[in-house]
Design a protein that fits this description.
Radius of gyration: 34 Å
Largest sheet: 6 strands, mixed
Distance between the termini: 57 Å
Oligomer: single chain
Shape: elongated
Length: 536
């Protein structure tokens, strides 16, 4: 082995290494002696772990090794372990030994023999080798027709196993592909976020908070996280989806926690709550920011304790689920306004991911169009396609500042569905695209397509109810439109160009950003405040 000394560490096997002291012992496979009998494997030092009850066995094994391999030096280590099946005691004992040693991998090759000892001892030695507390490789011995048996050396450095490393990379790729619904997304930040979600979903059962405007795909991503965990056998239960915006008061408590027969008027039978149905699975609370403070308090207890009382019952029910929450609101701001409990937010935001809107992922518009075309084709049984010129026109509009995609991916899905339904023989023409562009423009201007969260109270979201009530109704639609455009623009200048698209053409010099900044200032608003909302 490259001129280095070969050092083996192993446990003296009270069962496998034992044999009566007569000539017949050489006909039995004894792992500790057998490894020293290998013709092609010379051990310079064998460090043997043993207990006080095994002193006689140690003496006998040392003599037999000296007989078959006089070059091997036996170095005994007395380790007193009261319970060799107690994982904590065993691990601490071996860990303490490992950190006390002065290993020198430059001069010595180390091997950890995990053939003997209890399964707990073998596991602990394996873990300490994997963590490099023992800078060694694994040695595994097996019986064979020869009394000395056979041996195998296992290197735990996975980087050296190209085939295995490639398999892990392929599994990770399949996982992230599942989370992205098979869409070949190009946006770097989004792809990095999906990779992190994949890692967290498979390593943690802590709550996950998904934020972003309506239509960005929070529910779809929650479903894919569930599918991934189910596929990898991390969970056994169901996915339960609850739209919190539709539940309040007693209705919420009954739906969440269930009720017993006779708990209230109309409760003519027992009801299993949705939280109970999510046991051993995933609970997705969509629009969690819409819950009232009383409902939030009840939910917090159930999340923390994983126990709750059905309405009208004095018997506590347990349900162990992983929580995923979704919201289109800025929950930090809601806490400041007293509309959301800070302790509940602290409990659910360990892993928070903001899903960007479609207008912030313009490089992903083309692959999402391909996805929607495939989905329409699967649903209708007919292949839907764009003519080449029609696709160029649609993409040019879809990526332009004019396309605000206020409803995000829902707008895109609806648009492709309309194009497919109205196209001739499922071939989308330039004429089809031009008509659809006009529909989108009209819809966004009138708000009929918009799915923006809280559109009716968008001004109140920034100014509060008191200040909003002081704004003339004549000014509110304009201010609301300005805020909406700002929320879907990458910069103050871009928002200005969209808002002043007509008047700027009549000016010899333009400063759209300055005009917009002055307009916002009239209402005590600033771009920085709006930008902060987008980044939260």
């Amino acid at each position: 082995m490259s001129g280095k000394k070969t050092i083996v560490y192993g446990i003296l096997g009270s069962m496998l290494d034992f044999s009566p002291r007569n000539a017949k012992r050489w006909n039995k496979w004894r792992p500790t002696v057998g490894i020293c009998q290998q013709e092609d494997f010379l051990i310079d030092q064998y460090h043997l772990f043993y207990g006080s009850k095994e002193k006689d066995l140690l003496v006998n094994i040392t003599k037999d090794i000296a007989a078959v391999s006089p070059e091997t030096e036996i170095v005994p280590h007395l380790l007193e372990i009261d319970d060799r099946w107690d994982f904590l005691e065993v691990f601490q004992t071996f860990h303490q030994f490992a950190v006390s040693r002065n290993f020198d991998p430059e001069k010595e090759n180390y091997l950890i023999n995990i053939t003997t000892g209890t399964h707990v001892e073998q596991i602990c030695l394996f873990l300490l080798t994997e963590s490099r507390h023992f800078p060694a490789r694994i040695l595994q011995c097996s019986p064979s027709r020869k009394t000395e048996g056979t041996y195998q050396i296992i290197d735990l450095n996975l980087a050296r196993y190209d085939q295995l490393a490639g398999r892990f990379a392929m599994e990770k790729l399949k996982s992230t592909d599942l989370l992205k619904s098979g869409i070949e997304t190009k946006n770097r930040k989004f792809n990095e976020m999906i990779e992190m979600i994949e890692q967290i979903a498979l390593r943690s059962r802590s709550p996950i908070l998904l934020t972003g405007s309506t239509g960005v795909g929070k529910t779809m991503l929650a479903k894919k996280i569930f599918e991934l965990k189910k596929m990898r056998k991390h969970i056994e239960g169901r996915l339960i989806i609850i739209n919190c915006a539709t539940l309040h008061g007693d209705q919420m408590k009954s739906a969440f926690f269930g009720h017993v027969k006779g708990a209230f008027t109309g409760a003519d039978q027992n009801r299993t709550g949705l939280l109970r149905q999510a046991d051993q699975g995933v609970l997705f609370l969509d629009e969690i920011g819409e819950l009232g403070l009383d409902e939030q308090a009840a939910l917090l207890h159930a999340i923390e304790e994983k126990k709750f009382y059905p309405v009208g019952s004095d018997k506590e029910i347990a349900s162990d689920f992983q929580l995923i929450a979704g919201t289109n609101r800025n929950l930090n701001r809601e806490v400041q306004l007293g509309k959301f409990r800070d302790d509940l937010l602290a409990r659910i935001n360990l892993w928070t991911f903001h899903l960007p809107g479609l207008s912030d992922r313009k490089e992903d518009i083309a692959p999402n169009i391909d996805y929607e075309l495939r989905r329409f084709s699967e649903e209708t049984g007919s292949i839907l396609r764009f003519n080449s010129d029609a696709l160029k026109l649609y993409l040019a509009f879809a990526r332009s500042p004019e396309a605000v995609w206020s409803g995000n991916f829902r707008d895109l899905a609806a648009s492709i569905s309309r194009l497919g339904t109205l196209s001739n023989n499922y071939r989308i023409s330039i004429s089809d695209v031009k008509k659809e562009i006009e529909r989108l423009r009209t819809g966004w201007q009138s708000g009929s397509i918009s799915n923006d969260p809280g559109k009716d109270d968008l001004i109140e979201k920034y100014l509060g109810k008191e200040q909003t009530d002081q704004i003339d109704r004549f000014d509110r639609p304009q201010l609301e439109e300005v805020l909406r455009i700002c929320l879907h623009s990458a910069s103050l200048s871009e928002a200005g160009r969209i808002l002043f698209d007509c008047s700027r053409k009549k000016r010899t010099s333009v400063n759209d950003a300055d005009r917009l900044r002055k307009y916002l200032a009239k209402f005590n608003l600033s771009w920085e405040e709006i930008e902060s909302e987008m980044s939260d």
